[in-house]
Amino acid sequence: MKKRHEQKLILLSFGLFILFSAPMILLFNSEKELFGFPMIYIYIFGVWMTSIIISFVIFKKYDE
């Protein structure tokens, strides 16, 4: 794997560490709902899905 791709994955890991920390998650712990789901669930699964897509793009470029 190229050094550039490893650096991107490390940066993604640090970003996820910050986004999944307790203070960030508690910002979305409210009574508001979106499509019938609490905002905390939308936030957690949204960040998780975004991280999967970003890592897929990084690994896809690695294969080229």
Counting DSSP H or I runs of 4 or more residues, the number of helices is 3
Please report the total strand number as a whole number: 2
Main sheet: strand order: 1-2
In percent, how much strand structure appears in the residues?
5-15%
Low-confidence stretches: none
Give structural notes:
The chain is mainly α and 64 residues long. The chain has helices at residues 3-19, 22-27, 39-63, and strands at residues 33-34, 37-38. Strand 1 and strand 2 form a beta hairpin. It is elongated, with a radius of gyration of 15 Å. The model has no long low-confidence stretch (mean pLDDT 87).
Features:
64 residues, mainly alpha, two-stranded antiparallel ribbon, 3 helices, 2 strands, 75% helix
How do you describe this structure in short?
The protein is mainly alpha-helical. A hairpin with a 2-residue loop joins strand 1 and strand 2.
Helix/strand layout:
Blueprint: H1 3-19, H2 22-27, E1 33-34, E2 37-38, H3 39-63
Antiparallel strand pairs: 1-2
Helix pairs in contact: 1-3
